[in-house]
Structures are given as C-alpha cells and as structure tokens.
Design goal:
Elements (H helix, E strand, L loop, with lengths): L2 H4 L2 E5 L2 E6 L3 H9 L4 E4 L4 E4 L3 H10 L3 E7 L2 H6 L12 E5 L2 E6 L3 H9 L5 E3 L4 E4 L3 H9 L4 E6 L39 H4 L26 E5 L2 E6 L3 H9 L5 E3 L4 E4 L3 H8 L5 E4 L1
Parallel strand pairs: 1-4, 6-9, 11-14
Antiparallel strand pairs: 1-2, 2-5, 3-4, 6-7, 7-10, 8-9, 11-12, 12-15, 13-14
C-alpha cells in the first residue's frame, strides 16, 4: 500500500469521529480546511466540523476524498470536552508579551489566530506552544480589545535569585508589573497549540526582518533553506528567506520535516534547479 493510500485525517461531526482518506496528506488537509465552520482541536488531534455529516460528506466526496468509519463519542468524553462557563467559545491561545505568559480569549480559535498573525514580529515557539508578541502590554491589550478579545495572566516574568552585594548599591529594577486590570485566569483549560503546529508545512519561521540581528552575526551572512533532494542534504540560496520559501512551496508534493527542519523535495536535482533558476535561486551541497 502506498503512502497516499495510508494518509488520513480524523474529523468529528455531530459527536461522531470519522477518517478522511483518498489522497496525500496535504491534499486531504486542504479539503478539510475548506469546510465551513471547521476547528482544529489540538488536544484530541482532530478537526471538529459544525454541520451535518451529509453536507460534510458531499463536499469532501466532490473533492475526490472518502469518509470512513463513524465512531460515536462517549458521553464522558463529551462532558469533558465542554468549555468552561464564562467563555462562549472556550478557546484560548497562549501568548507571551514583555515576558508575561498570558491567555488570549473571547472568540473562536480561528478568529483569535488570525488576529495574532496580523501582528508584526509575532513568532510561534513550537516547543513551548506559545506565541511571542513584540510590543508593550498596554499596546497589545488595546489591539486585542478593539477586536473584542481579552488577555488573562498566566505567569509573570521569571526573576533571577536575589543577590546581596558586599557594598550597598542601587538595587536592580524588578520587572514591570502588568496593568492592574489584568486578572488571573479563572480556569486552566487551554487550546495549547494552533492547528498549524500539528498540520502545517511551515512551522512559522520568522521572516528575516523580524529577527533581531545578533552582534556576532557577519554583515554578509546570507539566508538559506535546508532541503533534501535525491536523498542528498542541500541548501537553497540566492535570495531572502521569504522569497526562497515561496519558491519551495510552489514545488508539487514538497513536505516539511519538523524534526530535521528540512524540506523534502520529491524531484531530482536537475528539476529542482530548473524551478529555482528563473527565480534567481540555486542549490548548493552541504
């Protein structure tokens, strides 16, 4: 059985779990993302879709895919999945602002994710499952309030152990406290990661202009993206990170390996180079 036949994505419709099959992973994912009112549940690693199974089945089958199975969700799991009271959607996105870990609430997950992604210099930390946002607490809070969203404190910035100098001297200023109107969260239910952390080829790499320049970094350092072509590790060079990334994403069947942080290109070196050359980029062996 080939890999395409093995690919499947789990969805939940009206408290029944199904598997979507019939194509490679990225094709199935694109079809699921095209469904209206879909939401990725990071805890259960499945897509929750609002609507009838007839509607969902019809749309997916029209795209050439198949829905298999049909396992009802147990009553205990349904009860555990209910969001806490006081939050209409129950969704949260973890963010870090000026060293403070906070939870963004007040809207469905996808709505909040779009608001986060619209911020300049935002960056997703895949290990900690948290978005780092540039700016002050006051600025970011005002930005989210305009969109009907709220921030709740999860933890304050970590402080270094106290040091007692031999000679008296001015004490180091402690981290600035958050505004008074930030209240501790009333519960501990979090949508820990956004859907892209599990189902994306691009793990939100920061764009070059969003990366602070290190003092030791050479001025002439060039951007490069690691790829595997013909089972050989190589790099794409010759342009900015975002430009080269866009070119790589145009190659059919390309896939990002999150463990090795490399793009797997299902073409030979000559074909890959023919695709990159007109765009001003080229391959180099590592």
């Amino acid at each position: 059985m080939n890999r395409e036949q093995n690919s499947r994505i789990k969805i939940r419709v009206d408290n029944i779990d199904y598997d979507v099959t019939g194509g490679d992973f990225q094709q199935i994912l694109a079809a699921v993302k095209a469904l209206p009112n879909r939401r990725f549940n990071g805890q259960l690693k499945l897509w929750e879709v609002t609507g009838s199974i007839e509607m969902v089945r019809g749309q997916l089958e029209n795209s050439g895919f198949t829905i298999e199975g049909g396992t009802p969700v147990s009553e205990a799991e349904q009860s555990a999945a209910q969001p806490p009271s006081g939050n209409s959607s129950g969704d949260r996105i973890n963010v870090e602002i000026a060293g403070h870990e906070m939870a963004l609430t007040g809207a469905p997950f996808q709505t909040m994710l779009e608001a986060v992604k619209a911020l300049p210099d935002r960056r997703f930390d895949g290990e900690r499952k948290i978005w780092s946002l540039a700016g002050s607490l006051t600025e970011i809070k005002a930005y989210f309030q305009k969109r009907g969203l709220s921030l709740e404190i999860r933890s304050a910035p970590s402080e270094s152990p106290a040091v007692h100098p031999i000679e008296p001297g001015p004490a180091a200023a402690p981290p600035s406290p958050p505004p008074d109107d930030f209240l501790p969260p009333q519960d501990t239910w979090y949508a820990e990661a956004d859907e892209e952390d599990f189902y994306s080829e691009d793990p939100f790499p920061p764009t070059p202009d969003a990366q602070p320049a290190a003092a030791s970094q050479p001025a002439n350092r060039r951007d490069q993206i690691k790829v595997i072509v013909d089972n050989q590790p190589m790099v794409v060079v010759g342009g900015s990170f975002s430009q080269m990334l866009a070119a790589i994403k145009e190659i059919p069947g390309r896939r990002f390996d999150g463990q090795s942080k490399q793009w797997l290109l299902p073409v030979d070196k000559e074909s890959a180079q023919q695709h990159l050359t007109p765009k001003g980029f080229h391959l180099e062996a590592l």
